[in-house]
């Protein structure tokens, strides 16, 4: 999730590029850069740090020229650093490119380009694009870009510029946004509308596979086959704030709807084409690396802790390694039994949560090997851990964590399969089924998001309840914990999650007529037991909303309402079943008039004890 801008016209490009980037900083802010053609050569200025650092560097040395591109980065491949910042250039500096997304086959391409003599300076996936352009260029800029697009796999919005054709910028997109702002004698390119609305409200929104050749007076859009596409002008009528949220009312709902995309990105390049294995280039462990590991310890806070709770099921059931899960603030003060035989995993969206960082340091001090699952490249936790798996969720701005959670689940599931593969604890056929299941998730998450109306209705109906209970068994219990946290943190409704089998041990006393109970029933091995628990609460006149798989007639018989998710493997159900719970929390908070993105008393990142 990075921000991209481009300008071609009669004015100095740098002015728009810097202003446009400042409107996109919410998309990524670990480094920034611009490239401007001055009539002779392309001048690139880029630096690690916030946009303010770049502006400071340019203060007395603003690049001159009427065509340029710019970028603000949220690191995925390669830590935040000057060389890893965009724009990226080829060996000669004649071709320049900015990118948002992930080039999945970059390692293959890089190897081949190195064999041909190209010299790489960064660790990024993007740099291959600039070198490929250099490689394919034979006097035809457009033709070379087409070849580049045919060679790369993955997701991208890409903007290209060359000194050999200084009257055009070419751009293209797949699975990442790109818009062209239509001006008078000038045109603008941006990953998102906020960058351009101070300049024009007339836009072309590019679709996947389209490529646009942009000059100052014209915009030619064509499809993958080179056939011209006639685009409709989209008039933007959002105000600046709405534009930042992509037209959504809140960051939280925007982030909920980003889940299909970020789930796909988090898996990108990590699933073998034939589904036979998980590829973690960042780990490259062998069977021998696991020798001596007797247990896994997972520590985290809040939503990330709930992801750890799910991870325990995944790892124990698939890789057959014992897993302990602990809240980081508890772990650090309980003189834990950790040593060299422990693999300590910490999970943290921000990579800065103070208790999680302290738990990581403590585990390290006691001799454990450490692995972080985090969303922020270069964060304190990423730097401290021996190994890191990044979730590629992009910046999460709403205090309530949504897309970070689902990408954490995808990451820890891939990790469980990875460990199971190394330990040969899983049959090859089963591995294939589960990887195939992962590949279906983005489309299935879309289906869940398309069915929002019933959830809005429940939220309106039960949004003023004083208490809501979430019940489930096994992985459904783990999701229930997250559903309850979401509801309480943004709607302030008292919400509790219980392992359904525990009801009789006390909680049942709280179940009275009309109390909403959200019952998750996606786990086939405990399904009948869960139905019995549903009957128990129904017998006390609770209003039960059942969450199960499409086609579950049995569940429909026993509950008052159902929310049905597409069928998937039992391990993957949490990644889908949590989405209706996020939506329920969101719409309940809206019903109650709460400040969704900034709930009272809470901060996005807890960096003090
Ligand atoms: O950045 P982290 O993942 O370490 O944050 C941990 C918790 O503070 C966080 O998940 C918190 O619980 C969320 N607000 C929940 O939505």
The overall strand count is 24
Structural class assignment = alpha/beta
End-to-end distance: 30 Å
Strand order of the largest sheet: 3-2-4-1-10-9-11-14
SSE inventory with pairings:
Elements: E1 3-8, H1 13-23, E2 31-37, E3 42-48, H2 51-58, E4 67-73, E5 88-89, E6 95-103, H3 106-115, H4 127-136, H5 141-151, E7 154-162, E8 169-174, E9 179-182, E10 187-190, E11 202-205, E12 211-214, E13 219-222, E14 234-235, H6 240-244, H7 251-257, H8 259-267, E15 295-300, H9 302-319, E16 323-327, H10 328-331, E17 342-348, H11 354-365, E18 369-374, H12 380-384, E19 387-390, H13 403-422, H14 428-450, H15 453-462, E20 467-472, H16 475-491, E21 494-499, E22 516-520, H17 527-539, E23 543-549, H18 553-558, E24 561-565, H19 573-591
Parallel strand pairs: 15-16, 15-17, 17-18, 18-19, 20-21, 20-22, 22-23, 23-24
Antiparallel strand pairs: 1-4, 1-10, 2-3, 2-4, 5-6, 6-7, 7-8, 8-12, 9-10, 9-11, 11-14, 12-13
Helix pairs in contact: 3-4, 4-5, 8-13, 8-14, 9-13, 9-16, 13-14, 13-19, 14-19, 15-19, 16-19
Bound molecules: 5-amino-5-deoxy-1-O-phosphono-D-mannitol.
Description:
The protein is of the alpha/beta class and 609 residues long. The protein has 3 domains: 242 residues, Aminohydrolase, N-terminal nucleophile (Ntn) domain (Glutamine Phosphoribosylpyrophosphate, subunit 1, domain 1, 4-Layer Sandwich), CATH 3.60.20; 195 residues, Rossmann fold (3-Layer(aba) Sandwich); 141 residues, Glucose-6-phosphate isomerase like protein, domain 1 (Rossmann fold), CATH 3.40.50. 36% of the residues lie in helices and 22% in strands. The protein has 19 helices and 24 strands. The protein has an 8-stranded antiparallel sheet, covered by helices on one side. It has a 6-stranded antiparallel sheet with strand order 5-6-7-8-12-13. Helix 11 links the parallel strand 17 and strand 18. Helix 4 packs across helix 5. The protein is globular. The two termini are 30 Å apart. The mean pLDDT is 93. The structure holds 5-amino-5-deoxy-1-O-phosphono-D-mannitol.
